[in-house]
Amino acid sequence: MNRLTAVLFVGISFAVNSSLVAQRLYFTDPGLGDQVSRINLNGSAFDTVIAFPAIVDPRALAIDRLSGRAYYSSGSTLQRAYFDGSGQEPLGPSGGSVPTDIALDVAADKMYWSVDGTVGVKRAALDGTGATTLVSQSLLDSLIGHDPLVRADDVSGIALDITGGRVYWANGSRLNSMPLSGVVAAGDAMHHFELSGAGDINKIKLDLDSSLVYWTNNGGSVVQSAALDGAGQTTLVSRGFGRPAGLDIDLSGGKLYFGDTLGTGGRGQILRANLDGTDLEVIYDSGSTLFAPLDLELGPDVAVPEPTSLALATVAFALTIGVCWRKRNMPTQP
Prior knowledge:
The protein is mainly beta. Helix content is 13%, strand content 42%. It is built from 3 helices and 24 strands. The strands form 6 sheets. It has a 4-stranded antiparallel sheet, with no helix packed on it. The chain has a 4-stranded antiparallel sheet with strand order 4-5-6-7, with no helix packed on it. It is globular, with a radius of gyration of 22 Å.
């Protein structure tokens, strides 16, 4: 990369990132409203993206920032729509009963999802074509020499390590992983750890720079973290009541967000805290015992952010610097 290219890259990258500052929190609710909705990060400005009867029993959710779409489950099917609710598109059956989680590899045109029951983890193109099973309990049982601690029934949450080429999944009190291509041989499926205390791992999120995994524990009423090998299991949030469900982490903002389907007085709530669990606060209280924020995802405020005036000025400045540098370094004519 020459200097001009580097300057342009930095300027344009700053502009793009500046246009993505505003974020909102998207979530599924199969209880109170059968809907995918969103709020500001402080809990204000509630609005609905997709609602019943266009969606039924939504549980799993993923956000594609580039195309401005939400991917979500409706009953036993997968669907997607733009953030304003338009362009709702069926992507086909989940291949099992109820999908429990969705993760996207947009660059590779792939979506991954987990399914309640014995199906395990599946993959397809972003448009739903080419669906295939990557791991299932029956597949594991057929492999001679596979680790018995690795199971793929009742998978509750998945997360992708795209750089490392692995899919992580939660099964009961265990965390396991496999190659993005799936399980073929016994050694492909790896067991990472089991909870040292009570409960089950629900939704999971990875902090790969720190080799950490965060999860909600829907049996222990807590939010926890540990190294990917299970070392240093730590309880970050313990309310003493409730049932934590959906989870997302904002590493740059130093915050974790989670849903509680049985919060204060049995009311469904959305909460946030620092990554170490301090400064816990309820940012959204539905006032209803039916509200169930089962899956949470941070996403942009708008589908395709328009460059701000500051962003455009930054690009212009980068171009000016680049042109000046080029003129200064051009060979003089004899």
